[in-house]
Design brief:
It is built from ten helices and 25 strands. It has 496 residues and is of the alpha+beta class. Helix content is 22%, strand content 46%.
Length: 496
Amino acid sequence: MPFILFLLISFLTNCTGKIPSPETERTYHKYKEILENATVEVSKPKEEKSHFPQPLFKDLSPLKKPITVAFHQENYEDILFFLAYESGLSLVIDPEVKREIPPEKERITLQIKNQPVEEVLKKICEILDVHYRLDRGILYIGPFEEKLINLGFLPVIKESRTSMGGDVLGNIGQGGGSGTLATSPLKGEYSINAELNKESLDLYKALEDTLATVLSEKGLYNLNKLTGILYVKDKPSKVRAVERLISEFKKIYAKQIILDAQIIEIELNKSHNLGVDWFEITNYLMGNNRVSFNTLDLGITTRSDQPSVALTISGQPNVNLILNLLKEYGELKVISNPKIRVLHSQPALISVGTSQAYIKEFKRDVTTGTATSTITYTTQTSSVFDGILLGITPYITEEDQIFLHIVPIKSDIVELKDVRFGVDYFITLPKINLREMTSIVKARPNDLIVIGGLILDRDKAAEQRVAIPLLSELFKKNIYEGKKAELVILIRIRID
């Protein structure tokens, strides 16, 4: 019928200007109505039914059989024989089991209703502290359980040392009348030493020390540090304790702390040469934020009423707002903007700067021979760092509370001065400005830590010339302008 309709449409369209006959028009409308009301069914191939029955999978473990039992002061061997018989299993009890179970635990009282045999067997083995396994229809009962545990720890050991302060007066000796040195009685000494040695950061050693206290006298373990696999053989209760211990290890050390740090130096204006007033800035940061000074601060600045400060901002801290507030105190210079990931109790170090070499020792040796003399020169060099070091060691508690041990050190080379002794002997003496502090900060995820108050005097040299081309080199002088700079460190904390 579609073909007939197509012929009729073609006939009508080709006969332009001609009126179709009534018979042709009736035929066209007739077939058009039939085609519009017709529904075309697409014949689908019939699916052939499989003549093979579908397999039915069923757990055929005999230990899944539900059972109801009630025992009162029954011997454990009789109970195990009963469970094996009801499950259709053979039973083998290791003779060592008899020696490991104390007499007061030989008789058991329990009542369990409509539970799988496996659950009843687990409860009895937990009471007796023995292990069972099923192998080819035989139920074995033994005194010890063996377990292979994959630790997944990275075998990398770090260490961290911090030493700050010292004898600021130097205890310099005074020259006596006879040319001998007299020790000065004046001292100004205050120092802090902190150390995270390799042993305290070695996860495998910490695990081995704990295993020695958890396992029984007959317990055995073998730790392969290369593959990170721990083999344990002991009573089931001890093996379960080791599994819980490993689980807690993994739970803590699987967490990573993401630190977004911004290290900024502010060249202070003359009106703010005493440093940033952090107490005034914290007034602008309130509202939805909470500012706390619960830190241990060990730094000194030129301002008597404002020591080096490390504050924690919780809530909705806005870094851009803090930077805009700091611009009011002077010119900002971004030294570094690092982003690092740190594991629990593992130290991390950010270092930005340059290493400047200098001559530490210079020797001239003359060897006199029969005819000629030989001169040998020996030079020993060393280096000083010009930049910033930021050491961070985190510790995460179960409640995701974070403690950070932060050690920023900023060093600036002022001068490398050559000092000569005689004609051929000289050394280089470096002069360095140093700013350092150590702080233990308590924070929570998404908090912002601000460390400030590290102020340094900096001399800024400028050359002044006469505005006459021929005389500009003759009439010039250097003008030294005293400047103060404050180091500010912003650290945002997140847990991954």
